[in-house]
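Section 3.1: Structural characterization of target chains.
Under the original work plan, the team committed to producing a structural model for every single-chain target entering the pipeline before any wet-lab resources were allocated. The record below documents one such target. The sequence was received from the expression subgroup and is listed exactly as submitted; it comprises 578 residues.
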Amino acid sequence: MRHRRAIFIVPIILAALGLAAGELRASTQGVHIVNTPHNLSKSGTGTPNVTAASDEDRVCVFCHTPHNSSLEGPLWSRKSNISMYTLYKSPTIKSLPEQPQGVSRLCLSCHDGTVALGLLLHNFEASSLGAIPAGRNTNFGTDLSKSHPISIIYPTDQEFSDKSTLEYKGIKLGFDAYVECTSCHDPHNNQYGNFLVEDTSTRHDALCVQCHTKSGWATNEDATHRTGGQRFSEVSGVVSSDGCVNCHKPHFAQRGVHLLKQADSSSGEESNCISTCHKGASYPGGDVASSFALDYRHPIQLYPGVHEANETLPVPEGKKHVQCVDCHNPHQAGFQGSPLGSTSPAVSPPSKAPEVNGPLRGVRGVTTFGEAIPGEGYASSEFQICFKCHSGGSASYFKSNRSSTQRPVRVFSSYDESVRFGASSVSFHPVTKLTTGTGRSLKSDYQNGKMQMVYCSDCHAPHGSVEPYILRENNSDTFPVGAATFPLCFRCHDDTYLYGTAGSRTLHVSHVRNHLTPCASCHDPHGIPTLTGVTQNNAAHLMNFDTRYAGAGASYDAAGRSCTVAGTCHAAGDKRYY
């Protein structure tokens, strides 16, 4: 009778421990608890992080007891864990973590390093094994802010798999609702290493994507951070196999928010990109890191921890910043249409101004009316991304650090680009809307509608430049210039035509070639803002004088073919006709 009773009891204990009978019989390395690092008895082999006991033969006793167990867990034998923890925080988190509960608190009774491994209920010492030493990667301490959140209700959101599919994938939720340690780890089965419930030996983020379904990650064929791309074999295989863990760490992340890998805990988010991957002359995607070290750049290094994925747009003054993720969505970015605007891109199809391409895909933006794009908010045009910072009431925040006396001071002045390129703008470079006229001052390849719109980045190098205003080429705005060469303007405009001898073109010869007057002294390179006093007549032809040289009262009369100027250029302050 005793023999029959033992046969009956064993399955009950196995069920309480979460073990199938087949697992107990399995001989595969790591499937049986005896062959895992959780075997702390004398028969255990130990690990670099934990030494097996020298004074205890029983395997299960470190967590379980058949009699007088605690109600905290299945046949639970360990000393109660009363620690309070610092929890994970993120501005975009879908559900708020709670103090660890249930199975997670049981796991932490060993893995927070506050309770000796050999100390059981009622302070009974089953072994002399002490707590996991600090600094070991199995000791998480009581600060969980840099680890994947636990004791958090599984979100019902489009960027997460349906909860009903998880059990089939081997992922368990505490109380059928909470993400816990055992959602990713099976404490009794180490067949995949780190007690993971999914084989991550080939695809290192295989477990991550069972729950996380980031928009565009799996559906964009050229999502380079997922696929590794097909252009550079020396990096594509590594990037593809790492997937999520290229950028994220589930435990001990250098930056807690979003669990980012960084050079160190004090580095900004941008270090996740430029210190690890996008750097070096040999990097196949270009040495982006060096661009951000140039004199004129988007200063991504200055704003650690400011960016929020759901931040107010346009970005208000108190939150002004610029980081890689302001212009690039790492979960959706690819190399389609690159370089921007190229008719023969590295990955088809090509992009055409003002359309975004792969690297700019999935980024929030602002409309030509200076308002955040509704819904998901994704920009369809490049300028909408630029307008996130360079529009609105605080657009002037990012003025150059040069003193105001060294910057153009316009008759009609605004740093709000949604006003300068707005729907009602009288005169503009065709960034937000189609060009008008035949473009007779342009090179022949661009005339008669052959170039209808341009990108902001046709003139500006968004990462960095040796030229002020992050311009792609020299285009001095100070008078007099050193030489009558304006390579940026003359990339599109025909200098032979502009230096002609007919009509108003003689003014270009006189001003630019003979007196070394910069183009920007008379013309506003972006557009004339829609402000009080601006008309079709006084703001035509991108005429918006720099008052440092033309005088505070400078004005233009397109119909009368004249301008009234004073100051450095014309000290007498008279009206000039052409």
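DSSP finds 15 helices and seven strands in the chain.
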